[in-house]
């Protein structure tokens, strides 16, 4: 959603790099570019004016003029101001001292309230709560049925005494839902109310009557993040007519300009508490202003990535995986382990969204958009087509086995070859990362094997670059041997000499491209380096 805004801000800050100090002209030009970027993102004009004024004032202060790197300090100022207009600190749900906690959802029709009710209930369930969904939307056709289906998918109970479709009293349903929750020991009640296509008196009166009947501990205004500044107008109308404690943004995965997310908290003074960015019930989480600001500036969101990894990866399995990668150069890491990791990664969500949380993800947006999520399933099909022995020891997979695996998985032999080749390369990189020789995702808690990428994924490092190919012989074959016995003997001798100069397994390559063996073919380190390694 924030792709355009991210690109504009990144380009603006790139112009500041390398400058020892920032002049007033530099600050004005930067502020002007940021202003244009925010307006193009459909951010409300009052929010833009306040934002630019704050950036200008701080940029002309001592924190920039005395900074060692004024450009980085400018980025910090913009980041701080983004966090401020997004609400400042993370706002958590307030639970009632005496259960049940009542949460009322309000908003326009089409904002995604019913689906979000199921997402919120599932999130509460995963927090150890016993939620109950109350179907108080009796106006929209099949709204009650939709909530029942969503509740069943989430594994959450639903209170729906009325069929809906214009029949029944929503206030009575909401009131009876609280009584039902109390008798059945539900500690949280989520009330789904009716919406309209626009703000009207009937909508406001019905929402206010439900609010007065159930006295909610939290009233959440659900807003579609794709409707731009109209979201601010609607939020102000609800604030005056009903009142609410926090905002929930839906459809953050859309391709709109995202002005609502940057405007509604600042204009209404109410924090954004939750965000939904997908169609799955699990595509829902607490809204963190500082993390969203970091994503907008293309600085990544590593905290969220780590949290998702810790949820998806079993701690004992992760420790066992790390042990395999650290021992014997990672040779104990098999295709079974790789398959286990891939399944855990799929639990974390969309592969595109995971990579999108990395710093600098905006620079590989085209590759992410071109990536096909089904590629993970195709890789899994190839691995499942291997025998247990082949998965345990991939080195035994010869040509005939590869043909059988390709046929069994419905893929091409070349794809099987690429996967196996990438597996060995990635295993080596993951082993180095586990031993602390490489940075990256391999050092994240619970993610010991992601540093080397996912073997065999086209567009994500899965295909080996062909590069420049050596010249072929007269018969079209590389390294073709001469038919002349004398020349052939010379060729074989030259090949042996090249092989002896190449680093063998276990050898350390020299700084000039070949191995540096001693008389026995072993590499000898200088005494001081050898002593240092012994202490390690």
UniProtKB/TrEMBL annotation:
Its main location: cytoplasm. Belongs to the GTP-binding SRP family. SRP54 subfamily. Residues 271-284 form the SRP54-type proteins GTP-binding domain. Its EC number is 3.6.5.4. GO terms for molecular function: 7S RNA binding; GTP binding; GTPase activity. The keyword GTP-binding applies. Pfam families: SRP54, SRP54_N, SRP_SPB. The gene is ffh. It is found in: Cytoplasm. This is Signal recognition particle protein. Keywords: Cytoplasm, GTP-binding, Hydrolase, Nucleotide-binding, Ribonucleoprotein, RNA-binding, Signal recognition particle. It catalyses: GTP + H2O = GDP + phosphate + H(+). The keyword Ribonucleoprotein applies. It comes from Jiangella rhizosphaerae.
